[in-house]
Amino acid sequence: MFVILLLTTMDKVNYNSFEMPKGVSILVPCYNSFSTVGGTIRSIIFTMNHLRIPYELIVIDDASTDATPELLKNLEKKYNFKLVRNKKNLGKAKSLNKYSKRTKFNLLFFIDSDIIINEAVVIDMISRLSDKKVGAVSSQYTPINKGFISLMQFMEYNMISLIQSSYNITSALTLSGGASVVKRKAFEQVGGFSINAVTEDVDLSFKLNRAGYRVQLSSFKVGSYVPTTLINWIKQKSRWAVGNAQCIIKYPKVWGKNLIHLLITALYISVSLIVLVNLLLQLSLLHYMFTFMPGVILLYIKFLVKTNVTYLGANALISSLFFVPYAYPIFQATKRFSSFLWVFPFSLIYLPIFGLVSTVAIALSLRKIFYLNGKSKIRAW
After folding, report:
1. CATH number of the domain that 241 lies in?
2. 320 domain-assigned
3. Which residue in 18, 239, 308, 366 is a FRET match for 87, CA 20 to 30 A apart?
């Protein structure tokens, strides 16, 4: 944690060197986004106009089947952006590849239809691109929704952002697809988005790293609508896990060169293995006693409970305190020290379930992952 915080602190951006770009081409792909796309479009127009950055806005309706087309037509009349509609559903990756070729500026800004942008994040992202080695920059997230699941995801996003920000010193491995700015030259050089990628944004960042470009994460957040039901949450986390696994298998040389990533991964795997081995040893001993010494197994279980209560309690406390930095943004928002108590359900309930869902999703999709890394195609929605 100390290493992560230190590296994140070292990530500095000279905003005084900010130069107004000649223009930004903004593409917003949407599919059945009636409840969110209006807010996204309004935030883009307000932000870009206030910053006085030249831009073009292209909204892509990927053959939506709800009321999205009618809403976009009304918004087009009011805000005068370019609206295009696919006759059939092409998927996010193929749609963005198709219409990015019809843009006129050298900065491509991809924004999902459930994102609310702001001035700070736009300035930070464009400022980072002044470095010739940086090919793309994405933003951090903060959930717009309210509720327990949203709050847990807020801490999850803080955790991911803090870790990914520490990679900025070298190069981040993943782009957050909700809002990312990519240099046209870099985007075209790597062939745009891979249409067979489960998570096209992560795949793009791996390809950029492979091509020698650096990828960074902004220090600022965009607003994002997050899953609020358990089913939708499981679907999202499963897709993320499978998409990341696909990229790790597909680009081993990329993540293998990232020493910071390897260090953090090694620490995570080491701790996980220690916990797993300890659990297996306990279960093995229980199985042995149940088989050969059934008369004393109840006594042994009581002994385990008695001796491990203190250990488990201390372990829960220590593991929860480890996640305190991820709760700090919640404290900033509420100004209540009680906000830090959310680390307990986050570390003891949310993360274990998150890990279980991700592990199961990858295990069930291994065959699919290897198949996708071939010549197959999949729609990235």
Report:
1. 3.90.550.10
2. no
3. 239
When pLDDT is averaged across residues 307-321 and rounded to a whole number, the result is 68
Instruction: Name the amino acid, one letter, at 365.
Output: S
CA atoms of 329 and 258, how far apart (whole Å): 28
- What is the spatial distance between Cα 221 and Cα 203, in angstroms, rounded to a whole number? 22
Domains in the chain, number = 1
| 150 domain residue, yes or no | yes
The verdict on pTM exceeding 0.85 is no
Answer yes or no: is 343 within a domain: no
Helix axes 148-166, 2-10, angle to 10 degrees: 70
pLDDT in tens, 133-160: 999 999 999 999 989 999 999 999 988 8
Gyration radius (Cα) of the chain, Å: 23
**End-to-end CA distance of the chain, in Å?**
34
- Asked if residue 34 lies in contact with residue 71, where contact means CB atoms within 8 angstroms, the answer is yes
Q: Could you read off the pLDDT of 75-131 as tens digits, one per residue?
A: 999 998 999 999 999 999 999 999 999 999 999 999 999 999 999 999 999 999 988
Domain boundaries, position 92: 2-13+22-257
Asked whether residue 318 is domain-assigned, the answer is: no
Pairwise CA distance, residues 225 & 140, whole Å: 13
Q: Are 175 and 215 in contact (CB under 8 A)?
A: yes
pLDDT digits (tens, 9 = 90+) for 197-234: 999 999 999 999 999 999 999 989 999 999 999 999 99
